[in-house]
Each structure stands twice: as C-alpha cells, then as structure tokens.
C-alpha cells in the first residue's frame, strides 16, 4: 500500500515540504511538452526574472536547477570556490552539520565555529575571526539564514555590516532554503553573493527545484573557480541564456509552471505581506509554546524564526513520541528532532501558503498530543494565546474587502 | 475575476458542499469517455450495488441521476405519487419549506404540520394525524431526516414504529440529503420507501448527483403513479438496467468515478466508523457552543444533528455578520441562517471527509469571529471543551496502528 | 475493475461526450466552495452573460441547470408550453424519437412528421403544415438543429424564413445539443425562442450542465405555461437573478469553473473560427468516407453535419462490429448506430476541442478497422483525401504566428 | 503568456519528454507530505525494488535521484571512477558529445572513438582497443544504448560478448535514458555495471528523476572511487537504505507516486509486451519514412531504434522548418536535428505510453508538413505503409478481450 490514509486533510506542519496551493496544483496538472518549442524561452525568461523578486534582487542572475536544496548547496560552493579555499562557517544545527560535511567532501578548507544548538551566529566570534584574517585568506563566509532544525534565524544585515566594517572581500554564501519567500531577505541590500532556496518550502511546490541567485561578484568568481562541476555548472546555463534557449538539459516543466503560479500568488499577496503573515504565524506559535510552559529550542529572541518553531519537551518525554502520536491520531505531521536534539525537540513548520486557522489547528493538535503523551498542558491554553494575538493582527483578505 | 483568493486553504464548513478528498479529486481528473463502451456497464453495476451500503439497504433499487438533491426530491415524489394524492409532512426549517413548495407545485395534496424552527417531527401530532386517517387516505409520509437549516435530526426508527403501530400503508419518503453516509441510516430496517441524498454532502463530491434508493414497495407504486415525469422517471432507468446498459441518457462520468472513490474511502473506514466519527465531531461542536454560552437552534437534545450545528447568536448580533467576517478575515466558510432564522443563526457544517483538527480549526475561527463582531467569548473556551472530549474519544487512524 | 485500460490515449470520437481540454481539466480540479459566498454572484453573472456568445444572442436570458441535454429538452418544453398544446415536430433520427417521446409524456399534442432517417426537415411539408394552420393552433415548432444519430443538420435560417413568411407566432424551440458552440447558430437573428445545449458536447466539459437560452418571447410564454415543473422551472432562477444570488439550489461548482475555461478557450479562438474549424474537420471526414467508397447516412449535402458523420456500412457488415473492434484493438471510440440504423451505421464525432491530426488519427483507425471486419478499403485512401484538403485549408495556430 | 495554445491535444512526438498517462497524472495530483512519516519507507522500498524490473535486474541496487538524465550521467561516472581513470567511449551523436564533455570535465582520461553520426559502436574498433589494452588500463567502457539524436541503438549483448571474450574487467556503464522501459534491456544478463534512465522518457513522467541501477561490482568500485561527489554520492543513499529511511535528503514525492503508477501500468502490460509495442511503433514509423522516399539518419538496420526515428531531409530543405511548421500548423511536436545534423534531420519520438493511432497521427502530420515545406511526398503513402503493418501486428488490448 502506498500510503496510510486518514480521513480528511493531513495537517502538514513539517518545516517543508509545505502545503501546495490549489492554483499551483492546477498549474502542474499538464502533459509534458517540448521544451525546445518557440514558446518555452519567453516563459522561461519571465520566470527567471520574476523569481528574483522573492530574493529582493535586481542585480543578480537566477538559476533554476532540477535538484533540491542539497543540490543548491553544492551549486553555491562549486561554482564559486576551488578545492583548498578557506571558508568560515558556523554549526549549531543539523543543516549546518550537513552543509559542512558537504564542504569537506568538496575539499574546501572549512573553519567551523561550533556553538550550542539553538543559538545563531555569534557575531563576536565572527569579528574575532575576521580580526585574525587580515590577509583575507577567507574566501567565503557561509551562513544558514534560517536553521530549520533549531528554529534559528540569523541576522544577515548585521553579518553584512561586520564584513563591510572589515572591508572583507569574502563571498557571502547564504542558505535561504527555509527563509526566502517567507522571511525578509534582501539579496542586493545585504550584498549576498549566492543565495539559494528549494521549491518545497516557502514556494509551496513539490520538491525538485533548487533555485539559486548569484551576484555579479559570484558570477565573476565562478570564472576562476577550479571545483569540478558538471550537472551543477551554472556556466552552462549562462551559455544557454545567451543563445536564448535557457536550458542546457531538460528542465522540470511541470514544476516551472507550478513556480509561475506560486510566484503569481506571492506577488498578488505582496512579498512584504507574505513576510508579515509569516511573522504573525510565527509569533502566534511562540505565544502558544509559552502558554504551554515549554521552552523553545531557540535560545534568544533575536534568533526566533518565523518559519519554524522548535519546541523542547520536558526530559521525561520523547519528542519522537509526540510526532508519531500526532500523526497516528490526529493526522498532524510535525517535524522530528534531528541529531543532537533527537527526542528532545519537535518542530512546527509554519511556512508557505498557510493561514491563521491552519496554524491554530496545528496548535490544538499539539496540545492534545502533549496531553496524550503525559505532559499536563491545559487544553486551549496555547491556542487561546495565539488566537488572542491573531484576532487583533490578522488583516482582512485583500481581495475580499 | 473568478474567485477572491485567500492564502492557504479555505476552511469549508458550510453544511454542504463539503470538502473533496484528494483521492476523489484524483479519480475525477480524467478525460470523458464513451459511456456506451463494453467497460461501462460492469463499472455501473458495481457502483449501483455498492452505493446501497451507505443506505444500509439490500432490498432496494438504487438510481444515480445527473441532478442535485432538489432533483432527487422531485424524483421521490413524481415516481411514487399522483396529483391529488394526500401526503403528510412537517415544516420547521427551510428545506421543509422548499420541499413542501415543490409538493404543492406538483399538485400533491399536502397536509403540513408546522412547528417552531429548531424542533423536529412531533411524534404526538404524527399519531394524531394517523388516528384521524383510519381510511388510510394518506399516501405518503415525507420526512426530512436531517433538517440542514436548523440542525435537527428526526428519529426515523420511532416514526417507523408509529406507522407500524397503525399498520399504516403510507409510503415513507425520506430526505437524507445531509444525513445518509454520515448519520445512522437503516433503509431496510426502517422500511423507508424512498431515500435520497446528494453527492456534495457526506460523499464529498462536487454537486451533480442525486442518489435515490427505492424500496420494492416504491417501485411497485411507481407503476401506477400518474405524476408527469420524463427526465426524472426511474422507469427509464429500470428499463436500461434490464438490458444491461444502465443509463437512459448520458451520465456524469467523472462524478461516477468520484463516487467510486468516495465509496471506497467510506467502506475502508467502515460505515459505522464514519457514523461514529460524525458523532464525535458533532458532539465536540456542541460542547464548544455551550462553552461559548450560546444556544443551539435545535430545541432538544433528541434532535441534535451530527452533521450540522446551527448556533443562535445574541439578539444584538447579526449572524450574517459572523459568516461574512469569518470568510473575509479567516477564510472560514460557515453557513448563513436561512429564512426565519436569517440573521439569527449561523451554521457549522461538519459532515463528509473531515477530521478532528479540521473541526477544531473551525471552532477557533468561530471564537475569533464572535469576538470580532462583539460577542465576548473567552478565546480558547470552546475549542478546549471540544478538544477535551476529542482527545479522549478519537481513535488511532486504523491504517497507522 | 473500474475501466479496461489501453496504453496511451483513448481516441474519443463519439459525438459527445467529447475530449476535455487540459485548461478545462485544470479549472475543475478544485475543492468545493460555498456558493453563497460574496464571490460567487459576480462569477455567476459573467458566466451567464458570456455563455450567450456561443448562442450568438444578446437579447435572450441564459440558464445553466445541473442536468443533461435530456433535462434541457424538458426545460424547453415545460417552461413554455401547457399540456394539450399543439406542437409540430419532425422525426428522422433517434434524438427525434426520444424528444417526441418526452413531449408525449408531458401531455403535449405532438404532430409528428416522419421521414426517412438521414433526411432533415422537409421544408415543403413544413409549409404545408403551416398552410393548414391558419388559426395558428400550433404553439411551438420543435427542431433538432443537428440530429446526432444520423449526422443531419437542419437549416434553421430557412425554417425561420418560412415561419416569418406565414407570420406564424409559434415558438421556435431548438435542440442545439450537438451544434451550439460548434456549428453556426444565430439565436437572435433566427429568432429562436428556446435553444439548448449540454456541457459534454462542443464545450468539452463533463456531462452535467444543461444550458438553455430563452428569448423574451419564451420568457413571456413561461408566465402562462401550465406544465407542471419544479426542479426545471426557470422562474426560480429568474427570481434568484433578481436578488443577485443566481442559484435557487446548489449549482455544479466545478462544472461552472470548467465552463468558464471552455468559454475562454472558445472566445480566444473566436466563435467563428471554431465554426470554421468544425467545418474543416467535418468536410475532411466526409472526403475520407467518399474515398472509402462508403455512403453517408445523411441523404443530401444540404444536411451534412460538421459535428458528426454517420457512415453506412455495406449490408454484409455489422456496424456494431466496427465500433467494438476499433475500441478493442485501437482504443478508438466511435459512435454506434442507434435504433433504426443499429448495425447499419457507425458514427465519427468531430466536435469540441480537437484538431486536424486528432481527426486524421481517427480516420486511419477507421480504415484499419474496416479492413479488420472485412471491408476492402485501400489503406491510406481516406486519410489521404482528408489530409489533402486539410493541408490546404488549415490555418496557422493564431498564437504561434 | 505562459504558452501558445492550440486547439485540442498537442501531438507530442519529441523523443522525450513523452506523454504522461492519465493514471500517472492522477497519482501525482496530491499535496506534499512528510517524507519522514512511518508510511514512506515501505512505499520507498517497494518502489526501489520494482523499478529494477524495467532494467531486468535482480542483483543490482537501484537509486532514484531528484535529478535528470544528465545528472544520472554524472552519478554513473563519479561514483565508480577516479580522476585520471582511463575510459573508452564512442561518439557519433549529440548525447555522446555531451556525455564525453562531462567525462572530460570530471578529469577522466577519455579515449573517444569518433564515427559518422548515424552509426553505432564499431565492434571491430572496440576489439582493436581491447587488443591494445592487454594490461587492462581501461577502467570503464561507456556506451549509450540508444543515441537519441540519431536514432541508433547499440547491441549491448554483442558488446558484453566482446568484453567477456577479452576477459576484460572494465566497468560497463550504460546510458539507457531513451531505451530502458521501452527497448529490451537486460542488466544482469549483459552484466551492465551502471545503467541509468530518466523519468521523462519511457516512464512517461515529468522530468525530475534520474534512475540508476548499480551492479555489485559497481557498488564495490564506488568504495575506492576518488571522484569528488556530494549530492550525487550513492553512498549516502546506501547509508539511509541501511537505516531504513531511504532518503538522505528530500525526495520528489509526487514524482515517486507517479513512478509507482507508471510501473504499475508497465507491469500490467508486461515489460516484454511494452518492448514489442515499441518495436511495432518503431517499425511502422520506418516503413512510413521509406514510403516517403526519405533516408533515415541511422546508417544500418542493425542500429534501428524503436524509440526514436531520425529522418534525413533532402538537402534543399531545412529540417528545422519541418519542426517549426508542424508545431505552428498541426500542433505536432517533433524533435529538431542537433549539432552536426541540425537542419538535416528531424526526429519522431515514439516512446512511452502511446498507441498505434497516436503514432499514425504523427505520421500523417509529417506527410502534410513535408508537402508544406516543398517536399513532394504522396499524401497517405507513409501512413498507409505503417497502417498496413500495424493492422496485422497489433494485438487486441488485453483487458478488453
């Protein structure tokens, strides 16, 4: 049997893949087509242009690879760096662990700053590292904008400010997989050199697209980068951009039409309204957690994430039980704790095309599940805290005014 | 513009049309086909057979008309009765009003028992009417099993018991539009002669099928019924059943495949489990209403409906405002109050393929909306009451044990 | 098992249901919604307005019933006529047979002019009948624009001309089920009083909508019509048009969105271009039939239908074998011969959203099947004749110029 | 505008992406889900197992990467080889050109045997190369089973025979992108070490999956391969196979469900019946080409491809005009000539879920287009030749017997 059906809707609150809107589903329900037909370049061009709006970038070049976020990590590294290049990065969550493992496999010389899971980039250490790097040996600074495993959002503006203060020429490579299209992201303003995201997060698509924006500086760097790359070489894309056929190999047609629909929805709502909505939903979720008397995995408010909330469970409870039971009884899909926080943390994803009542449903589900596993939360407590905030902050749906 | 989009899922809690499950959507996503091909009769036969399971009937004959519940009303009347025939029925809600209006247009001699909206069939009056009908002038007793406008479920077993006590030969025609497939319905045991439902209610399909089951007695009656009928004449269907091609005119192919998928889901869950689930969701909703300090439109517990809850608002509030605001702000679709209870009642539909968290989301939405319109409900109060009950009563999803 | 799968596409060439375009499929792939929401009236209004364009009518009122073409027949009759009213009509095909049977059931006084199957309305007889009707006893003239069982299109302009010449006040009721949206149809110019079509023909939708346009004269007539009607009473619709909520009972939402998409496609192509395309495809099909040395069921060129071609097989062949074998071997769905022409005729439907190569595929399939059943057609003969014509007459696809 | 619509179906006859069957479309029309739920491993396991049936392999290990065929090329090389490794390969078509370009980028030491486009692997040269390689310096032999740009199928059994005759230990890496699932492919029997395909070819899915089977010998080789790899490292997959969660990063859920449906269709038809069907359609196409008096790009019958036919046009005609005009006028999508044969060749893809009449439609379309561009083909000639063969060779559809 292919799946274990429940009745009604699955409540999908993992921090990606996220819920696919009906309009996106419709756009993808189409036969294959000849991507070499005269119709395809025009479509492709507008898509590559419009996707940059969620990066808030005008000067970068965008690429859409048939890949995932993991592939996009590789794209960001191999196109800009050479084996042996020194890079500085931070590790305090599972996606940091995995990206760094990739950097090492790619023979990059990674200087890893470890810190407690649930913390973000330590700006003091960053400064210290730059202090020590007066000869600019560091070729790239790699930052995960939003660490999905711990619910930590880093302050890119501050990081850019520090780099600027040091007049440091390092490339700024940013994993925006669980942020771009949901959190405030300003590629041009923050002088991010490579920013990446994946289709199954804020964009509400199936998995399968790795979306990459590269600054002119990153494009320039790629010309001398010696990392071996083939499938993931953006130079091939650039060549096909020049001749106007856009795709060096067969693109994922259906996903591109889905992306078109997703962008249309985002642009109709307004990128900044989308960001505000994510803040509302994130804040409401955190209010609920506080009402339950539980701690966030995230150590400080400055790092609170508006796309995912990682919740610590009391030590006598296994967070894996929470996730399993929520799925088995309420058809609620939560994120498990990964690696160091396995068993200690469960995660509520609240990104993509979702609204207030969807999130409130998840919060009620968590309340019930917590009681089921023996944590004596007061039913209604979290949802009431969240609803009180949302009732006041939620605007009317623009099209229905 | 064709619709006024919100972000994320619309929370559809009108008492029909109900939410379409993904499996049903998939089944309907198909090209047209030749309904005269050798493949179609076999499919049709199994469908006509299996649909009877939600009526709990083995001895009746089923019909699937390209129509709606309103059409099914007409089918039930014109196939069994003749102009001038005396029928007894009850009116205490909008669907009673409409069905009776149809009876009158069809030149039936309707004896209408009016009662307060929110009440069900007065069994005492029924007995009185039968007392007065010693010559069995009443040809049919027409009962709405579940009055969707007021949230009233009538006790068909008791009604049948009374008819039996009088040995009354009247046909028992039952509108099960918002009950069959969701509430306990026992066609054979209760000797219902014609029972009808529509595709967009418990079956979770789009509107477009009027589903009718007729007892042998009803089939017999149709042979002498003098009501004029053409499109809705089940005799044509019976003729095509005999020759094995099943459809006197083009059926709604996609809806039939959708019905197949919906029945498969229901039979997999188990008809009695479906009924229990509806009871859980109905009871939880009523607990929330009580916690809000509001009254049901339904006057007595014996009539409580497990598919729709009609909620009275305080007199200084217009229930239409509740419905409009819920839709405009939370993308929550509630049912308006109709006719006599317009402005006084809003309705929460909880039928079809929905689960606990979906209903709880609606309840939070109602709480927030009530506050928005000025009714000082305590946030979390209703949802907590509902959740407390659901947490204890909800079983694990069978396939996930 | 629900269907008997072949590999690849079924070649659907019955004269309805027709092929559903991808855009229409996408439009229908949506959850149910609240048809009482503030969004629905605006959508409904534009749909009711735009659908009149395929009728070429500005002055009529349109209705969209959850029903089929058969239901639309009933609507046209019961809304405008009273039992006992005299109507004149013609019978030379199966849909004539069925509509007349309905007229009789509805207690109308039908004067039927029979003629050989494959002929159209005998204008001489029509004149004779009108000659004999100097007191205007005839209340309605009922014409099937395109008789789907024999491939006969009647000349409505000529018929209107005759009525005008006699200054006859009879209502002109027209079955345009297999014509409107495909053949030239001019409701206002021809002063048609009620024109009907069904969703599964030229509109490329699933079965389930009966679409009706009524002239002001027909609307007027309905005010005094005494036919009993309930579900099919357009007065109820008119009442809801007035209050602006449009639907007296639950409409088929998905089909309405599909209709919107279908109309968009037709209006984008241009109604007159659609008509020209159907003429090209019909003419090409007839050229193939001639090349095969077979006869049309249609007796004279003046009646040739551009939506369906009924082909007579030689007497030693059973046309049912052609249809069965085409389906079993080539996944080609052809129309069977009905009633008087059962076994003698098979039908190629060529209406709706299809293009030249689709029809040519069907023609090759017919050639192969004819050989399979023992008729010695020269392979390639029909398709060559059709292709020779189509090569010269097919325009470039407008959007691809 | 996102696409340039024609009326009716696009006739998709590029050699991939191919037509998506309705059942596959339905299977993919689903929301995202949590790929870490307890339901996913069981589903994944059966899929990984069953996909091997189209490779005719029991002993290999399968991998499904979110990627394309180009990515699968990289997977096959980097997992088994180290920079500097000597590989032998053949180049006589565009996909040879591209794969070799990748090999060189990956720093492999490629010995390229060039031959005329339209020829296959020269077995004599292969022997000569092996003669010269008595010290087994060649680490891998890379073969494109079916060169999509020229319509050339290589004889893998013969190639394996030669390797065996020399007892040569080289890995046999095979690009089966446009063959596996359509042509006879026997991974175990032919001792293929890595075989790859893509989802958008014989499997009738959207682009987005690179499917790879690796022999035990290939898996062994990967343990010492020094090629840098990260996203494409199958060792990560093997690790997750071991722990039973199967996916080192987010898989393309919808495509996996589509793959399940595609495999179900193939297994229902029977792999060998699928292969026979492709042979029928390929042979029929070649008969048509011959009847038109045109030459294949493929030089000898032994290399004829049953998935794609590359047709040479007379020198005064530009094959690009054929492709453009077919698309603009008949909505027929053909493959263009690539690289050396640009302008000289157009291609008819006939792979995946298609049937006889679909291919015949394409053939008529080509005939018409050829006349349109000035080549005096006799209309009906090609299609008649193809139909004559197909009429005799096409079996009844198994489910419809």
Automatic annotation (TrEMBL), chains A, B, C, D:
Protein name according to UniProt: Uncharacterized protein
Taxonomic source organism: Diphasiastrum complanatum (Issler's clubmoss)
């Amino acid at each position: 049997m292919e799946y274990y059906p429940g009745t009604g809707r699955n409540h999908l609150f993992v921090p990606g893949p996220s819920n696919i809107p009906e309009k996106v589903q419709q756009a993808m329900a189409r036969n294959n087509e000849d991507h070499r037909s005269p119709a395809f370049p025009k479509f492709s061009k507008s898509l590559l242009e419009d996707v940059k709006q969620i990066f808030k970038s005008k000067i970068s070049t965008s690429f859409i690879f048939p890949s995932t976020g993991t592939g996009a990590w590789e794209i960001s590294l191999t196109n800009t760096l050479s084996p042996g290049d020194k890079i500085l990065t931070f590790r305090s969550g599972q996606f940091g662990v995995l990206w760094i493992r990739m950097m090492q496999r790619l023979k990059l010389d990674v200087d890893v700053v470890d810190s407690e899971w649930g913390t973000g980039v330590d700006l003091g250490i960053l400064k210290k590292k730059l202090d020590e790097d007066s000869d600019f040996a560091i070729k790239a600074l790699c930052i995960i904008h939003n660490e999905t495993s711990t619910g930590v959002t880093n302050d890119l503006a501050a990081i850019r400010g520090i780099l600027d203060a040091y007049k440091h020429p390092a490339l700024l490579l940013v994993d925006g997989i669980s942020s771009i299209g949901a959190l405030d992201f300003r590629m041009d303003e923050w002088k991010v050199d490579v920013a990446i995201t994946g289709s199954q997060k804020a964009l509400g698509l199936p998995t399968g697209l790795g979306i990459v924006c590269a600054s002119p500086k990153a494009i320039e760097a790629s010309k001398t980068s010696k990392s071996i790359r083939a499938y993931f070489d953006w130079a091939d894309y650039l060549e096909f951009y020049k001749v106007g056929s856009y795709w060096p190999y067969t693109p994922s047609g259906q996903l591109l039409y889905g992306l078109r629909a997703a962008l249309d929805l985002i642009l109709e709502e307004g990128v900044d309204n989308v960001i505000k909505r994510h803040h509302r939903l994130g804040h409401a979720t955190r209010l609920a957690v506080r009402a339950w008397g539980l701690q966030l995995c995230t150590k400080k408010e400055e790092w609170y994430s508006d796309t995912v909330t990682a919740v610590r469970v009391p030590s006598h409870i296994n967070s894996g039980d929470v996730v399993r039971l929520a799925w088995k009884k309420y058809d609620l899909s939560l994120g498990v704790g990964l690696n160091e926080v396995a068993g200690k943390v469960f995660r509520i994803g609240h990104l993509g095309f979702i609204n207030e009542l969807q999130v409130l449903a998840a919060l009620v589900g968590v309340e019930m599940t917590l009681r089921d596993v023996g944590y004596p939360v007061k039913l209604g407590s979290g949802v009431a805290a969240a609803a009180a905030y949302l009732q006041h902050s939620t605007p009317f749906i623009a099209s229905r005014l």
